[in-house]
Amino acid sequence: MLAYAARRLLIVLVTLLVASVIVFFVLEIVPGDPARLMLGLNATEDAVRALREQMGLNEPVLTRYISWLVGMARGDFGESLTYSVPVTELIADRVVVSLPLALLALGLSTAIAIPVGIFTAARRGTRADTAAMAGTQLGIAIPNFWFALLLVYVFAVTLQWVPAGGFPGWDEGLWPGLRALILPAIALALPQAAILARVARSALLETLAEDYIRTARAKGLPANIVLWRHALRNAMIPVLTILGLQFAFLLAGTIIIENVFFLPGLGQLVFQAINQRDLIVVEGVVVLLVGTVVIVNFLVDLAYAWADPRLRRR
Amino acid sequence: MTAPILTIEKLDLAIGGAPILRSVDMVVEAGKVHALVGESGSGKSMTALTTMQLLPHGANTTGTLRFGDEDLLTASEERMCALRGDDIGMVFQEPMTALNPVKTIGEQVAEGIRWHTGTNRPDAEQRAAIMLKRVGLPTTRFPLDRYPHELSGGQRQRVVIAIACALRPKLLIADEPTTALDVVLQAQILDLLRELVAEDGMGLVLISHDLGVVAGMADDITILRHGVVQEAGHAVDVLRRQTHPYTRQLAEASAHVPQWDGRAKPPEITALLDVQNLVKDYPGPRTGLFSRGAPFRAVDDVSFSVPPGRSVGLVGQSGCGKSTLARIVLALDKPTSGIVSFDGMETSRLDDHDPTMALARREMQVVFQDPYGSFNPRQTVERLVAEPLHLEEAPLSKSERRERIAFALDEVGMPADAMRRYPHEFSGGQRQRLAIARAIITRPKLVVCDEPVSALDVSIRAQILDLFAKLNDELGLAYLFITHDLTVARAITHEVMVMDHGRIVERGATADVLDNPQTEAAQRLVAAAPDLNRAIERRAKDTSGISSPFEARKHPSS
Amino acid sequence: MTDHLVAAEHEDWRLFLRKASANRSFQAGAIITLFIVIMAAVSLVWTPYDVSKLTIPDRLQGPSWAHWFGTDHFGRDIFSMIMEGSRNSIAVALIAVGIGIVIGVPIGCWAAAKRGWIDEVFMRTSDIIFAFPALLSAVMITAIFGPGAVNAIVAIGIFNIPVFARVARGAALSLWPREFILAARAAGKGPARITAEHILPNIANLLLVQGTIQFSLGILAEAGLSYVGLGAQPPATSWGRMLAEAQTMMAIAPQMAIAPGIAIIVTVLGLNLLGDGLRDLLDPKLRRER
Fold first, then answer.
1. Contact status of B100 with chain A (Cβ, < 8 Å)
2. Is the Cβ–Cβ distance between B208 and B175 less than 8 Å?
3. What is the pTM of this model?
């Protein structure tokens, strides 16, 4: 088990390293001269030269990459051009919005999808199953930001139950903050829940066709007990896989949804940075998100080993 | 005469409107072994699932199926749950998939005990440990927290038997319990079942296609064909008299020896295939971050030769390395060390692009076990039989190709118009003929046969063995014939090699080795091999005056 | 059980059509998809109104006979814009799927045929690409090259490559140990030839089904990217951009958001139904589960 985890961790580190090379390459090498790109066409030569100096662009590429990497390892993502504050600070301010939103959406989607998956697998072929599956088919097709617009219109504009957007900050207490995140979380969660429910159902049905299910039935266990005790854990593997992938989509989705609700999260930060050509901020946010996705997938790998003893040996 | 545990009368079963069983009658008595015999599609497994009431959706049954005094056909699901695993146990064919991979063997055996008796976990686990010891898995060597993947196929089947027998059921149904195991493991599992029946006095329904197994085990027998009972009665009587034509047909097919002119042919001195000091290692399992366990030696210093036109058998238990050896001979795998030369070409040193290799491949073809997996389902018979023809030096014209294909099909007894059809349109036996047609189309000198008849029903098997004999006579083909079935080895080989733990431990003329095995490994194989006639002879002696074989044979061969 | 990749039945066209006539999901999906494609094709030569012309007096009308879905804040006919937008959605998603198939499938087949370190490198690379959701790639590309429809295509296409490669690899890996492949190897055929003759025909169904899934995901992704301004740029019309514009008008003209949303949903739904239907028709093992 330990060897398995260590091997996975090694892969994670290599993945992170390669991902950092990609980000560095795309954002610092491809543009040719990032300083000129950031300052725009009308910049004076002096200004460009000064920025090059400030960004350390005159150093050799390898030195730049290593000092960038070392800086990140210490939590230093550089300094934003437009705000003149450390990127770390900017990100920290925004993460407290985006991360709770993504986690809330993930929790919500799992909490809806797993019971629906189990219910429909147990009652496959019934009307309830058919109706639920039609519902998920629709859920998958709905773009989350459109669903968000709809929610805003119904619950914020028309009913005025919740604010239409904006974020009061966590200083006001837990509830006002959560209130502002409820609609965005629902908008993010429902389409993902539809996918997850379908995966859970089909994984369960596949497991229920296995030989060992018949063995368990031959022991005298009723069908529903067999489902809980024998099928569920075996069906977890594909569900976990999708859950890991979904986290990446949820994070990306967060960026879009924040736009709908005017939430001051990473999404807003990154779009402002794009408009202002603040590459250093873009770089910081991308690295952070990629890192999170990789680490979440590492956790999913560990969960695999928990779910399936056969993997622990590898 | 004891009271019947299970009485089946006029049982009809249809699934989705298709009739599976027609008016089946059968009576199983306590302490007896009742064999249910038939070829594939006879409905024997469905009879078992009907008894367990675990039939697939869309099944419709009529008739009576009494367990004791209860009619199970009308019993509630709740009542069936109370019976299953407590009074009726079941053992399945495929031990590799019959256990839940994420639960320990202790949990899986204890689960049924806890469910039915309501006892607490420690008690149930203690009873599970006792039961596992009874089936030959003492906790000292097989702790309860082992997972199924840590056990071999034979050991897993013991766990499945422990689950089924944990609560001393009155009736045990074993559906082809040894078909997926090699003969030595088969004999061990059959002994175990025999002991359990003798000790617990339960009735055992033994479902099998193998008359040799049945003859050694059963008190009573029911022979099914296409869902209809052909013959039923006392097992030894039925199998000895063979009055019913179908019974006779099955018995003859299972001991079939082809008419084979080449059987007596003296061997040539030259070697067609020559293997010297062959070794194949596989990397060991990962043990740490960068470390691996010791490599596994699948083939260990093997040397042998096959003369032209000679049929050489390779027998051994599963996992002994015989299939690995076959793959290396066929140059599908590279050996770790050693030399394979074929017709003077050193194939173990050639790579796939070498023109000499094409020549070697043309002269050396293969027939595999699975008649369903041997063909690309999207190709017509024409294309798939013609597959090796691209090895010919000169490209063939379309009509030449057709001619060659038609000729090969004719040689294996298939009509030329099979060409336009797809493999799924043929039965298992016909597919195996097509596989042989593909193997002989380039006029090879050697055909490697990897268990080519083990997936076939006995009557089909007999026909395919005849075909192998005929092709040896007519084309002078040499065979390297891999099988775990000594009856097959006896039927179609001149010589036999016994393989054990990667080594060839014994070699000689087939009759010599099989009648008078010298090494321990060969003796184990021969002793375990079920043999219809020997079993009937032995049982006929035993049964004079005694009703059950168990009392007569205190310690069955093991 | 062993035959889950290789359809036991051969797909005779007549047989396929007979089975298709009983498959509701396939029929509905095919009809919707066909409808959208026709709509996009027609928009090339004709739309009810010219969407590049602004007629302010007609702005923000509700649905009527003249304007089926109403008009937007510039007085443009929303139905005409939906027709125009379908072209963009289909083009982006289709090209992105094409990139995924053309690059991904050969890589996946190659990794499966070679195994060993090549396979390992491939798997790790695809792990890395999976860590960059299409949106992140689009963000990076836009930061450098500025916004544009091509960004969306490249970003979604890059993400599709490992998707198709993994599907191809997984399916090919399960075929390689099969006896008919061994027989082909014993007949002296090399990896490339075996892949072409035996592997690809047997995984084509799977790739087709995955193709429809990625197509529908591509439509959703393109809409999202256009919505946040990383995709199609004015004056091009796209469903995502229409929604972005609708958002500013939400309080006074919610109907502006309805039509593009429905268009996206119907298209994605149609493709998903088509995919499900195809999977059922082509894959005997999956059919059993439904």
1. yes
2. no
3. 0.85
